[in-house]
Structures are given as C-alpha cells and as structure tokens.
C-alpha cells in the first residue's frame, strides 16, 4: 500500500555527508575540554578505541520505499506538501492551556479518591499529551496505549487494532483518553470498550481535534466522563502536532492540510 507519488531516488537516506574525514573531538579528562591526542606517540588501548572514531562516517539507513520517497518531501529543512496552516503553534499553545484549565477544574470538582489516569493514544497523541499534562494542575498518572487503523494511508480500516496495552491498572479509576484527533470515531469507541472491560469507573475523552464531519462510529462516555476538544477540524486530512501521513509530518509544530497530490486515492480499504 504505497500512497506517495513515485520519486526517482534510491531507498537510502543519508544522515551525514560523505567525503573528507570529520575528526571527532577527544575529551580530555584533566581539562574537561575537547582536544586532539598528541602526535608521534604510541596510543594507549583506550586512545586506539577513540582513534577508530576518526574514520569518516556515512550512515545510511535502508528504508521502505514509501518512507524513502516521503523523505524526499523535505525541502530546505521544512516539509513540502502542506497546502495551508490551520492552527499555528501559538494558537495551539493558547488553546491547550484553555483545555487544561477546564480539565483541572473538572478533576478537582470530581473529588476523586485516586488520581485520574491520562491514557495517550500512540503514536499521534504524543505531542498533545505532553503539552496537556504539563498544564493540568491536579495529581494524575500517565500511560499509553497504541491503536492503529490508518496504516500508511488516509482512510480508516474501520477496525482499529490495539497493538500495545496499558501498564497502569485503571480498575475503579477515572480515565481521560487523550487523542490527537477523533475522526470516524472508530479508535475512540474501541478504546472506551477496552477501558470499560478493564474496569475504569469513568471515562472522558480529550481530543486535540474533533472532525465530526467524518463520524461513523458512535461512542458513549462512561460515568462522569466528559468530552473535551481543542478545535473542530474541517473535513481535510491534516498533519502536524503529532499527526502523520505515512509516519511523517508528526514533528511540525503547527497543524496543516496535506496537499491532496501528496497521496493517491487509497484503494486499500
Ligand atoms: O477516529 P478515527 O477515524 O479512528 O481516527 C483517529 C485515529 O487515527 C489516528 O491513528 P492512526 O491509526 O493513524 O495511528 P497513529 O496514531 O500511529 O498515527 C489518530 O492518531 C487517532 O488515534
Ligand atoms: O486527518 C487526519 N490526519 C492524520 N491522522 C488522522 N487520523 C484520522 N484522521 C487523520
């Protein structure tokens, strides 16, 4: 299932330039500064080991074809392929603070006997989760669950698979599922069922983006659970702030619409 346009390049991604030797600095214990070893002196075994590091190094990593092609989307240190920015880094930061303040007030109001467990849905939620929990002023535990349904495409398989489970015991606890995006609703509905089975007493969902136009699966919050969302997302395939296309773009600090020509129509589902 390769959605990217064919690119002429090979399947290797150079991380360091080939060419002349790049001698690595030697750390001198005495001075705590970096220096090169004295010339014409037989090197000690330790120095010999260090000397090996002076060889010119070109690290190439074999990548699957789609990933190698996606790597060529990078131009001048920025990603190509973004049609337009929907939310800037500053707008995101401001909104995440508001959502965290709402969560803080609600968690305090619930007077929980045990701290809430914030369950981030890997991989996409990792950025939002990190930003959010640092702004919530209440005791909480953090855990991760991995659910996948999009693979390398832009269309949900409709059957999310939980490929990595929780470490924390959520029985009898208030759980906040932290998502980067609720789109069809398949993932969140599958996770709520999963957490209910594990005995969570109440389940909230806090999603950075909510794309109601694509919703096809209903989900019910549990007990005192509440739905929180950062922004309502228009019906575009978006990337950045943790969200990917074929595992790329997650590191963009903003959210943008991916140009349609970056992917072909996904016929795999
Ligand atoms: O509401 P839905 O239609 O189910 O879509 C939402 C899910 O899709 C994405 O996960 P994906 O399967 O792409 O895995 P990822 O988090 O590793 O990117 C996203 O991170 C959500 O978890
Ligand atoms: O629009 C989206 N972008 C990235 N990942 C997603 N998973 C569901 N919808 C999206």
UniProtKB/TrEMBL annotation:
<keyword id="KW-0660">Purine salvage</keyword>
<keyword id="KW-0328">Glycosyltransferase</keyword>
<keyword id="KW-0547">Nucleotide-binding</keyword>
<feature type="domain" description="Phosphoribosyltransferase">
    <location>
        <begin position="99"/>
        <end position="245"/>
    </location>
</feature>
<comment type="similarity">
    <text>Belongs to the purine/pyrimidine phosphoribosyltransferase family.</text>
</comment>
<dbReference type="GO" id="GO:0046100">
    <property type="term" value="P:hypoxanthine metabolic process"/>
</dbReference>
<dbReference type="GO" id="GO:0032263">
    <property type="term" value="P:GMP salvage"/>
</dbReference>
<dbReference type="InterPro" id="IPR029057">
    <property type="entry name" value="PRTase-like"/>
</dbReference>
<keyword id="KW-0963">Cytoplasm</keyword>
<dbReference type="GO" id="GO:0006166">
    <property type="term" value="P:purine ribonucleoside salvage"/>
</dbReference>
<dbReference type="GO" id="GO:0000287">
    <property type="term" value="F:magnesium ion binding"/>
</dbReference>
<dbReference type="GO" id="GO:0006178">
    <property type="term" value="P:guanine salvage"/>
</dbReference>
<dbReference type="GO" id="GO:0009845">
    <property type="term" value="P:seed germination"/>
</dbReference>
<dbReference type="InterPro" id="IPR000836">
    <property type="entry name" value="PRTase_dom"/>
</dbReference>
<dbReference type="InterPro" id="IPR005904">
    <property type="entry name" value="Hxn_phspho_trans"/>
</dbReference>
<dbReference type="GO" id="GO:0032264">
    <property type="term" value="P:IMP salvage"/>
</dbReference>
<keyword id="KW-0460">Magnesium</keyword>
<dbReference type="Pfam" id="PF00156">
    <property type="entry name" value="Pribosyltran"/>
</dbReference>
<dbReference type="GO" id="GO:0005829">
    <property type="term" value="C:cytosol"/>
</dbReference>
<dbReference type="GO" id="GO:0004422">
    <property type="term" value="F:hypoxanthine phosphoribosyltransferase activity"/>
</dbReference>
<keyword id="KW-0808">Transferase</keyword>
<comment type="pathway">
    <text>Purine metabolism; IMP biosynthesis via salvage pathway; IMP from hypoxanthine: step 1/1.</text>
</comment>
<dbReference type="GO" id="GO:0000166">
    <property type="term" value="F:nucleotide binding"/>
</dbReference>
<protein>
    <recommendedName>
        <fullName>Hypoxanthine phosphoribosyltransferase</fullName>
        <ecNumber>2.4.2.8</ecNumber>
    </recommendedName>
</protein>
<keyword id="KW-0479">Metal-binding</keyword>
<dbReference type="InterPro" id="IPR050408">
    <property type="entry name" value="HGPRT"/>
</dbReference>
């Amino acid at each position: 299932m390769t959605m990217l346009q064919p690119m002429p390049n090979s399947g290797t991604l150079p991380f360091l330039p080939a060419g002349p030797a790049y001698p690595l600095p030697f750390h001198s214990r005495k001075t705590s500064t970096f220096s090169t070893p004295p010339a014409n002196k037989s090197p000690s075994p330790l120095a010999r080991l260090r000397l090996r590091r002076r060889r010119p190094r070109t690290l190439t990593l074999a990548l699957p074809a789609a990933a190698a092609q996606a790597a060529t989307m990078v131009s001048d240190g920025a990603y190509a392929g973004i049609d337009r920015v929907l939310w800037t880094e500053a707008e995101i930061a401001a909104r995440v603070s508001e959502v965290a303040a709402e969560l803080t007030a609600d968690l305090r109001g619930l007077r929980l006997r045990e701290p809430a467990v914030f369950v981030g849905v890997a991989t996409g939620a990792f950025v939002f989760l990190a930003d959010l929990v640092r702004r919530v002023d209440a005791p909480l535990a953090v855990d991760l669950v991995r659910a996948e349904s999009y693979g390398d495409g832009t269309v949900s398989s409709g059957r999310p698979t939980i490929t990595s489970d929780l470490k924390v015991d959520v029985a009898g606890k208030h759980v906040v599922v932290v998502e980067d995006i609720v789109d069809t609703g398949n993932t969140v509905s599958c996770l709520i069922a999963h957490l209910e089975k594990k005995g969570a007493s109440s389940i909230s969902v806090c999603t950075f983006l909510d794309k109601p136009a694509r919703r096809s699966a209903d989900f019910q919050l549990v007990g005192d659970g509440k739905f929180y969302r950062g922004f309502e997302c228009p019906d575009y395939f978006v990337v950045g702030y943790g969200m990917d296309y074929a595992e790329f773009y997650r590191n963009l600090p903003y959210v943008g619409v991916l140009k349609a020509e970056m992917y072909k129509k996904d016929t795999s589902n």
